[in-house]
Amino acid sequence: MSISQHIPGNIKRVSRSIGYAAWLDDPGAWLGLPVVLSARLEPHQRAALAYAALRSLSPEHASMTAELAIYGPQPEEVAA
Fold it and tell me: SS3 for 25?
């Protein structure tokens, strides 16, 4: 019996969605991911995923990424 048979469908869908976003590696794919994550994961699971992703970055990049995720881009950062 494979371990994948025990993984709930919502987790498999999230895994596939993350894989597609990484494979496509374009802003549209990444920006669509929060919809899937919100629909398929509990808040503590999304927080754990965010924590793990931020820990994989340098402190400088983690700080910039977290700030951008929370507050959005500054007006001068958006291309006209």
Answer: coil
User: pLDDT tens digit string along 27-68?
Assistant: 999 999 999 999 999 999 999 999 999 999 999 999 999 999
Decide: residue 10, CB within 10 A, 0-12 exposed, 13-18 middle, 19+ buried: middle
Tokens of 18: 């993350």
Which of 48, 45, 56, 47 is CA-nearest to residue 22? 56
Cβ neighbours of residue 20 under 8 Å, at least 6 residues apart? 29
Q: At what angle do helices 43-55 and 27-40 cross, to 10 degrees?
A: 140
